[in-house]
Specification:
The chain is an alpha+beta fold. It has a single domain (about 10-165), classed as 2,3-Dihydroxybiphenyl 1,2-Dioxygenase, domain 1, CATH 3.10.180.10. Helices cover about 25% and strands about 35% of the residues. It is built from 4 helices and 11 strands. An 11-stranded mixed sheet has the order 4-3-8-9-10-7-1-6-5-2-11.
């Protein structure tokens, strides 16, 4: 069985220092290359039902790489705004924050989540209007939030390029900046 949303396709890891985390993953784990977004374009965002004030930009960085079909996402939040990431860090955690599920039919799986009684903790839209994501609340075991990620024309090619770059990666050019 692959859970409510299918197989896990992403491990979301919240870190305090993205550069150090990328060095660890590429050097020690030998996973890479990592593709870094130094700016995250937040089009909509809410946490615990409260919308983020978009007049004050969200400051954070994301790095993506693949190990086989599994995407590794490193997330560094720099701004003090309250989010699932900030609360995770403030509780003394660093590391696995969520597992992600990719969906070509986001709306159908959102309905399935509602029917299963899952509660939205954090959701939003990143980079393009189709870039929807939702985190579902969990308790009792940090690092087990479920994230539903909409797959669309804007990220499908990017995710495939990142996965393809990992195949046969020899350690050269371990960090590649996307913005």
């Amino acid at each position: 069985m692959n859970g409510l949303f299918g197989p896990v396709r992403q491990l979301g890891i919240v870190v305090r220092d993205l550069d150090a985390a990328v060095r660890y993953w590429t050097g020690t784990m030998r996973i890479g290359p990592f593709f870094v977004f130094n700016k995250v374009d937040v089009l909509a965002f809410s946490y615990l039902g409260e919308p983020l004030d978009l007049s004050a930009p969200f400051e954070g960085r994301i790095a993506l790489a693949n190990s086989g079909p599994l995407q590794i996402e490193l997330i560094e939040q720099r701004s003090p705004v309250r989010t699932s990431y900030r609360d995770f860090l403030d509780a003394g955690h660093e590391g696995l924050h969520h597992v992600g599920f990719f969906s070509e039919d986001y709306d159908e799986l959102m309905e399935r989540a509602r029917e299963a009684g899952l509660v939205v903790e954090q959701d939003g839209v990143l980079f393009t209007p189709e870039g929807k994501f939702t985190y579902f609340a969990t308790s009792g075991h940090p690092g087990t939030i479920q994230e539903l990620i909409a797959i669309h024309d804007g990220n499908r090619g990017l995710f495939q390029m990142i996965a393809d770059s990992a195949v046969g990666w020899d350690g050269a050019d371990p960090v590649r900046y996307l913005n």
